[in-house]
């Protein structure tokens, strides 16, 4: 499961409802939530956030919480 998948599960969000509201196919939603190698597009993230009545910035922070800048080793 991806970070997006975990986030949507925590919110009890219906993938079918998200697909219906956003126009993103059910198969694409499944791919985004199950396959970690799938790249999430910004437009998709924004639409998904709107569909679940969440702030897009908060969703981004939550699903990217593991990302960190490299430390400068000078």
TrEMBL record:
Residues 6-61 form the HTH cro/C1-type domain. One of its GO terms (molecular function) is DNA binding. It comes from the Bacteria. Pfam families: HTH_26. This is HTH cro/C1-type domain-containing protein.
